[in-house]
Each structure stands twice: as C-alpha cells, then as structure tokens.
Amino acid sequence: MLQLGLVGCEPGGEAAAPEGLRATTAPRDAQWRVSSGTAAVLGLRPLTMDAVPTTAYLMLGERCLRNCAFCAQARDSRAPIEALSRVTWPAFGAQHVARAVEQAHATGRIARACFQVTAGAGALDEAAQAVRTLAAETGVPICVSAAPRNVDDVGKLLRLGAERVTIALDAAKPAVFARVKGGAWERTWNLLMMSAERYPGRIGTHLIVGLGETEADVVTLIQRLSDVGVTIALFAFTPVPGTAMASAAPPPLSVYRRVQVARWLIVQGVSRVDAFSFDSDGRLTSYGLDATALRATLVSGEAFRTAGCPGCNRPYYNERPGGVMYNYARPLSTAEAEREVAALVASLG
C-alpha cells in the first residue's frame, strides 16, 4: 500500500546510524504496524472486506523526519500516527505477526510481505532486524520500501533476506519533487539507477500521478525505468486529511487511465514511448496502436489492475468502496473491462 513519501525520502537524509546495519532478530517487545486489511487476513483482528489484500503490508518506525506534502506520516502532518494514505495501521508484536504471516503464506492467503519504513534515526537498523526476523520465520518473498543512504545499504537488506528493495521517486520530475518532497530528485534517481545496475530485477520504485507533472513527464520516465528493469508501482495522488496537500484534488480518472495503460503497454513490451503521441500540453493522444488493436490488447482488463511487485494488490489504498476505482485489486469482470477500454479509447480522441 504505497503512496509513500516516507519511503521516497532523499538518500542520506536519515540520522547517523552505527556502521553497517545491525542484523539482529527483533527484540521480544518489538512492534510492527500492520495495515487494517492485512491484520484481518492474518487473523489479528476482524474486518469485513470485499477485496482482500494479497500482500502482508507492514510498517516500521514512528513519525517520519521528512516532510512530504502528500504523506500522512510526514513530520508536520496532523494525520493520526497510525494512518498512511487512507489506511490505518494498528501495532502488534513482531514475533506474533511473523508467525501469522508464515501461516497465511503457507495456506496461500498472501503472496508476499512488504515493509514500509519511515525515515528516522535507526530506521535502517530496524528494517534490517525486521527482514531478518521475517526471513527466519517464513519463506515469504519480502519487499522493503525504505530510504537507503547508498547502494551498500540496499545490498545489506537484500542479503538479510529481502527479495527486493523499493526506492520511491514518487514525483516524475525534479521540479515536482522539490515542491512536494524537498531535496534533490537527482540524488534519489542516481541511487535508483546504481542499485538497478548492481541488483538487476530486485529494485522497484513508486510513481504518483497527480502531483503536478504532465502525462508525457511520467510516461517518459516509466519507459526509462522499465528499460533498466526497475519495477514500477503506480499510484493516484490521494488527498489525506491532516497533510499539506489535503485540499488538493486527485487526478481525473481519464488522466490516470491513460498513464496506467501506458505503463502496462511499456512493461509488457507491446509498445514504447517513442511510438506514443502527446499534444502540446503533454496529454497522451495515441499509443501507436489503432483502436482495434488497442481494444484487443486491453480486453482482459489486466492493464487496469494494481501495478507493483508480484502479488501486490493494495485494495482501496487510492479508493473508497463504491467510489472511483483507480486500481482494481482483483480481476475485472467482462463488463468492467469493456467499460474501461471503451472509456480509455474515447479519452484519446
């Protein structure tokens, strides 16, 4: 569940930690925050759901030292400490959660676990401890979304048992990054590229649509990331009460759909940004496919589902039940897929 400024902070921004990442198991009194949907899947508390998370979403750390304008965990945020985007994250004992994750994975209820790590003093050590604990208790694939200081930090998390590490850009261009996150976009970009080169297929990032970029900005960046094997989790900006951007509007669904489909076509190797067309405002007008070919390519509805790591569906992270569905957390029905494809094709005109 990842519209996370807290995991996309500028590298080098965390308080100094002891040399290396201490790889100890979690203390007996260690607490992990668990998304409310995950807590229900793991049997930790009851919750009625019509879309069940297929990843165990876990959060480490307290209020972030960084101040991303869209993030509930930002330093100056007035959102509750247990909130992240539209989701609440109650705390449970780490060992208890690890055992519950193992049982849920063994029975096929979850496909992976994902740690969201706030940027604060000792955050990377806490992440290292958590990864080692979960890797020792389970065989579940583990993702860590954190703010590593350098490529060595990334490698240590991977060696401790993480399958992949996510370094969030969130913003699609430097000016937007500086405005909503602070710091230099290039530093995060360079760390992302160095990590992708050293650990191919094991690095991911997050991009948020609706922060002030154009469609051309984000789609061009998606192509660059895909070309170097970085996994791209795509989000729609979600205004959260208590944050600096609480009064900002989410992106129009048509804008998100055009970018969402562009990501899918690029990642699937169906088309490339070189074949796309944009108008003078950076709005996508063509994917380089005629309407018939585009409809046939999108008929399954897969392009409209949650994008990110394998097994990640983030139900209702950007949505309210019964509201606008930016990311489908489940397979689409035939009628839903036909409706989404028709609307997408019409929006290109």
**Mean pLDDT level:** 88
Strand content: 5-15%
CATH class: Alpha Beta
Per DSSP E runs of 2 or more residues, the count of β-strands stands at 12
User: What is the strand arrangement across the widest sheet?
Assistant: 5-1-2-6-7-8-9-10
What global shape is seen? globular
Order of helices and strands: EHEEEEHEHEHEHHEHEHEEHH
Short description:
With 349 residues, the protein is α/β, with parallel strands linked by helices.
Write the layout of secondary structure elements.
Blueprint lengths: L30 E4 L1 H6 L13 E6 L22 E2 L2 E2 L2 E3 H13 L5 E6 L5 H15 L4 E4 L5 H10 L3 E3 L7 H7 L4 H14 L4 E7 L5 H13 L3 E6 L16 H15 L9 E2 L5 E3 L4 H8 L35 H14 L2
Descriptive overview:
By secondary structure, the protein is α/β, with parallel strands linked by helices. It has one domain: TIM Barrel. The protein has helices spanning 36-41, 94-106, 123-137, 151-160, 174-180, 185-198, 215-227, 253-267, 291-298, 334-347; strands at residues 31-34, 55-60, 83-84, 87-88, 91-93, 112-117, 142-145, 164-166, 203-209, 231-236, 277-278, 284-286. An eight-stranded mixed β-sheet has the order 5-1-2-6-7-8-9-10. Strands 3-4 form a two-stranded antiparallel ribbon. The chain has a two-stranded antiparallel sheet with strand order 11-12. A hairpin with a 5-residue loop joins strand 11 (277-278) and strand 12 (284-286). The chain is globular.
